Amino acid sequence: MQPRKVLVVDDSKLMHKMYEVMLRQFPLVYALDGREALDRLREHGDVELVLLDINMPNMNGLEFLAAMKADGAIAHTPVIVISTEGKEEDTARGLEAGASAYIKKPFHREEILDVISRLEKGTAA
Amino acid sequence: MSEATKTGAPASATSASAPADSELVVQLRSALSRANELTQVLEANLREAESERQQGGDGQADERALELERRLATAESDVKELASRLVDSEHQAGRLMNLYVATYQLHATLDPAEVQETIAEIAINLLGAARFVLLLKRDEGGDLEIALNQGIYGEPEPPFTGDSYRGGDAMVDATLADGVLRLGPNVDSPALAAVPLRVQNDIVGALVVLKLLDHKPILRSEDRDLLDLLSAHAAIALFAARLFATKDRKLRTLESLVKLARGE
After folding, report:
1. Which residues of B touch A105 (CB under 8 A)?
2. Contact check, Cβ <8 Å, B22/A24
3. Bridge partners of B144?
């Protein structure tokens, strides 16, 4: 089953547009930082996947993950981190913080679709 | 020095092509899936025919098996061909999406700061640039303003420091002089790319890529398309935004003067 709604968290409007074009098959909601993303998640109870950048103002991706995991109502929502931070330790940090998968920018559309597909099957890492 | 051809305008049909290409990918996926199903059916038939033959079937079974083998070989060849076309199409679709989004976003605003921000976002998110500078000719004076100076792994080094660029990198200087997009690095320059920024036939600046993200070892062919797009569109978007800002400021001043003259 594909996610009913996807929350895109990225401070880049260019990336918002990119996700809009790449993921036409999913209804998307957007946030420009972690704080706004928490509000969106609470507003939209039907969000079933979060695409999360790490470097953002106000509340970065890792802080958002910590806050999200501490809130029982939204803690279960799967998160795919999509970031320019591409070192092994960055990936490990994202996954330890609770992300379901980690994709490095720049990326191809197939990478996201592949991860979403694997999340559906429960095999994403 | 690796020198590329002069840049031209990017494909004008980019925005229309991206969704069409996506549909092609969907169609190819569907065709591939059907071809796989056909292969499975043929393999099952082949196994069946082989089984019949082993059970003492006559010459008809042999013929059927041979025919099925031929059809299987054809189907497998079709599957390979379709798989290859699918990969090409997905690659092409991704390339067009990048170009469409970059063009759309560059011209989505008339705020000069936002246009510069978009150029930086394209460099970081779509090209994978870790360190880069944006050089723009000043209205007065011969030097260039360093309008953007961004570095994820530390700041750029001389001659790309401070507020102005006065020359010093041979590859960048050559690009600013003749408007040719150049890829490096080479003995004269550590820069990975010097992208001329054009407004009609004038070179008004350059985007200089100095380092890529650690996980992106080289600029690929699809990146060249993005560099060409930046060369053709970034300066025009910036120029239009600056022009609008200047006009807007003048208009506000005139309105204030009119109000003052009317005693409002």
Report:
1. 124-125, 128, 213
2. yes
3. B137, B165
